[in-house]
Amino acid sequence: MEFEILGPVRVRATDPKVAVTARMLKTLLGLLLVRANNAVPADAVFEVLWEGQPVDAATRKKLHLHVHRLRHALEDPGRIRHEGGAYVLTVHPGELDAERFERLLAEGVAADEPDRAVALLREALTLWRGEPFGDVGDVPVLRDAAERLTEMRMVGLEDLYGAELAAGNAAAIVPELAELAARHPLRERLQAHLMTALYRAGRTPEALAVYRRTRAALVEELGVEPGPPLQRLEQAVLSGSLDAAPQTAGPVPAQLLADIPDFVGRGTQITALTERLVGRADDTVAVVAVSGQAGVGKTTLAVHVAHLLRERFPDGQLYVNLRGAEGNPLDSAEVLARFLRALGVGGSAIPDDLDERAALYRSRLAGRRVLVLLDNAAAEHQVRPLVPGEPGCAVLVTSRARLAGLENARSVDLAVLDDDQAVALLAAVAGRARVAAEADDARRIVALCGHLPLALRIAGARLVARPYWRLARLVGDLADEHHRLDRLRVGDLGVRASFALSHQGLAPDARRAFRMLGLIEAADFPAWTAAALLDSSQDEAEELADTLVDARLVEVAGRDALGQVRYRFHDLLRAYARELVQADESAEARTAAVGRLVGGWLWLAQEAGAGIPTSNFGFTLRPPECWRPEPAVVDAAVAEPLAWFQTEWAGLLGVIGQAFAADLITLGAALGMRLAPVFVVRGLYEDWRAVCELAQAATSRAGERWWEANALRGIGELDVMQFRLDDAVVHLRRCAKIFEQLEDDEGRALAAAGLGGALTELGRDDAGDGEAYAQLELARTLLVEVGDQRSRVWVLRRLARLRQRQDRLDEAATYLQRALQVLRELGGSEAVAEAGLRERLGEIRTLQGRVDEAHSDIEQALRLHRHHGDQFGVARALGSLAELHRAEGRRQEALSSLSDALRQWRRIGFVQEQVRTLERLADLHEEAGNTEAAEIARREARLLG
Asked: Where is average pLDDT lowest: 165-169, 343-347, 500-504, 861-865?
């Protein structure tokens, strides 16, 4: 089967029935072919096929239908796979005309003989049948791909006519070249080929006329003169020296390292390097710098490309390992001496002075086409003297550093391999059949190697050395992070050794920063965390982080919602940093550093949390002394507290466990409790339970009774919210007992408030005041004594709930009005607490039949909850609004509000509230006579309950 996109989208198969004709199917096929063998997210497909339309169940069904039709049209259902919300079209090598086109172009450019180049390039160009993608080429994604392919075709045509000229076919190509040049009057390389062909065909006046037309077009259209190469060509035509033989001197060096036979992937980078090294139209030397972290394959790629281009540089290839990562980089003067000797300059003729050597080097390369490969450069100053002076030569540099200061250089930043390329590399080394037979384990090996080419080559070599191993055995070896780098070593190759070269080249403070950052558990991190670990200023931490980025030991992950730069480790580099911090830092130093890190998180959580309005019961904490980030960092968190918590959430949860593991019990517990407002407002209840249970276990083991009581209270209050009421009573009684033993009246009050709430929901006092009322009155009395007015609001709300259950509605309303008065006296940002009270008051007013007041209170509560992102509050208010509509006889509005409430409860994972809401929906459906809908709701409620 063949796929064609260099013209109308078409499938060619041995079976003539295989055809894709419908525009929608052509568009879908074109989109999958643009990303052949790579995942195309379903969302991207929706955007292309149904631009601007909402993605609903009907649209998804349409997409499934189109994919099914395309699979049927291709007569191979396995061609299109659905993986993780994305589609992948399998295209085998040679099946896609665009892939064959690019391969033939590259082979033509690298061909040894001009005639061979002409044949390959013409074969490539004959694959074109018209505009790429034909009648679906107006789709934006496909249009971008079409423009890229069209530009490649133009470059290929220019390469073709260059090869025709080299083959001596000047006169024969004039007609077709003249027609093409007329259609593209601003492409200087094309005009240069036409001038050369005309000159060699004995048509010098016409060649000069081409120059004049081109100059006029450039001046008129772009306001620029022709580039230096075209100007020099005109002078050569005028002087009759165009075909003068170039000067040659000395031997032809061939110093490249051997190319590897199993090179895979990097097609995009190969194309970019080739175009930049041999496709320049100006009169400057082509200089391309390939950068990337240790082990990413910079040298391998550079050597491979250099071999592909050998014939384009017939006067030789120079190579040197500049040892930039090894701590003792070669001196540029020494490299120049080596190159001069390779170019035929005797030892006594080589000057001592660096500048004189560089001048002689440039003179020896004048008029020659030589490729210079400078491998493993340390910095720009090492490279500059080694750059030739004339455009016939090109320089390819590799470096772990980004050589941003290297004049006139184009950069190619090399990343790790993608999944498919990484698996292909492992297969090329270890054996394709072996890897294909254990494909899942092969992908696990790729992941454990972090897609790093050096690690994958070593892993493959270990498998070759042990043909009796299953791939699962190597997966098991690599799964242990503490020994992973030990396993990634074979012969004189080792990932650790490669990393060590970069690490040893750092100054002592940067080396320490690298290893200390290994203590961070989060996937990415801001610079202040380095300041905490190093106990340094923010400026010093940022400078050290940038140093590590420059050394390719740390990556920039991007900017977060607050504008902070975030950093991350490659997985294997993190493992290396952790090895070093364990080896080079004492246990006391590591614990102190983690303590500062946790302290920084605690201080930021405390300051940002104060800006989050919440109706939650709160925690009264005794914040321990801790390390504090600088004011600018704190100000950024305080300015947008919810955005800060959302950005740092994974790091916050991870560092709590890290604190407990390091026996920093009070710091870890304090941080966990400080997250309470976010747990409530954002509806992160599973995280809340996990943190409180972790804190309770750690504080219990450490004998930190006060903190253990707070953790138990957190679990108990969450039990109440989730209607795990028997569990709540157990946890809150344990909490109360500890606070009583500690003679902590405020703690006793808060525990009593929680216990009273749980007993109320269990219905213990429905028939009259009992333990629930006694606990709540105890809480209120103690809170007045200790002066905690805000927690008193929470108790008054629970007393109102008790009176509501007892059908003493006037007293319930009085409690809530008293709570609102206390809030007004407190002042400050209490909007969510007010919303919770108004929602309860609206519920009471509904029961009292005072619907106008109920509307006012519930709608105000809903607005406040939504404005502040209180997910739990929104769900409750929607339920209360539904009851109000039901009381008014507005059944449809009641159903709508309850349905919204159900979606909200599902979003935050409250199963018991989902059950209660479904039961209320069932009642409403029955009242409306819709027994079928009622039964569906009850059935779902039974399944959940």
From this structure: 343-347
The position carrying tokens 């108990």 is: 716
In a 3-state reduction of DSSP, which class is residue 322? coil
Per-residue pLDDT of 392-408, as tens digits, reads 789 999 998 888 888 88
Exposure of 221 by Cβ count < 10 A (0-12 exposed, 13-18 middle, 19+ buried)?
Answer: exposed
Cα separation, 613 vs 631, whole angstroms: 22
Nearest to 605 by CA among 543, 545, 647, 546: 647
| 41 close to 86: Cβ distance less than 8 angstroms | yes
The first and second tokens of residue 370, run together, are 């030589």
pLDDT confidence of residue 249: 38
What is the C-alpha to C-alpha distance for residues 856 and 875, in angstroms, rounded to an integer?
Answer: 17
- From the list 414, 434, 479, 578, the residue with the least C-alpha distance to 488 is 479
The H-or-E segment that residue 100 falls in is helix 97-109
Q: For position 829, what pLDDT does the model report?
A: 63
Q: Is residue 393 within 8 Å of residue 368, measured between CB atoms?
A: yes
Statement: residue 228 has pLDDT above 70: no
Give the SS3 label for residue 552: coil
What number of other Cβ atoms are within 10 A of residue 624's Cβ? 17
CA neighbor of 410 nearest in space, from 270, 552, 228, 272 = 272
Task: Kindly report the number of other CB atoms within 10 A of residue 453's CB atom.
Answer: 25
Which tokens go with 891?
């059944």
Instruction: Write the pLDDT tens digit of every residue in 772-826.
Output: 999 999 999 999 998 888 888 889 999 999 999 999 999 999 999 999 998 888 8
Stated as kind and residue range, the H or E segment containing 41 is: strand 40-41
**Crossing angle of helices 97-109 and 114-125, rounded to 10°:** 160
Give the burial class of 367: count Cβ atoms within 10 A of its Cβ; 0-12 exposed, 13-18 middle, 19 or more buried.
middle
